[in-house]
Amino acid sequence: MKMTIEIDCTPIEARTFMGLPDVTALNDKLVEEMQNRMTANINMLSPDELMKNWTAFGVGAQEQFRKLMSTAVDMGMGAANRPK
Fold first, then answer.
1. Are 15 and 7 spatial neighbours (Cβ–Cβ below 8 Å)?
2. pLDDT-based confidence at 30, cuts 50/70/90?
3. For the segment 48-83, what is each residue's pLDDT rounded down to a tens digit?
4. Cβ-count burial of 15 within 10 angstroms (0-12 exposed, 13-18 middle, 19+ buried)?
5. Residue 17 near residue 9 (C-beta atoms within 8 A)
6. Which residues contact 54 (CB under 8 A, 6 or more apart)?
7. How many Å apart are CA 42 and CA 46, to the nearest integer?
């Protein structure tokens, strides 16, 4: 024997019927915290903040960055000049 039961209810009603706790407040707090962290991290990606971070390490970091860019340009120019 096969029976099919269709229940029309909201998620809140289903959780209450099953005896599950209401975690709405916890979920709201979690979402708020995630939004706060994302906003804080997005501000760190602004060009001004990136330059402050790079220059905070002094001349050594600037020199390393210059070498990195120089190497990338050299590799790009070398690839363009190679015979195919």
1. no
2. very high
3. 777 777 676 666 777 888 888 888 888 877 655 555
4. middle
5. yes
6. 61, 62, 65
7. 7
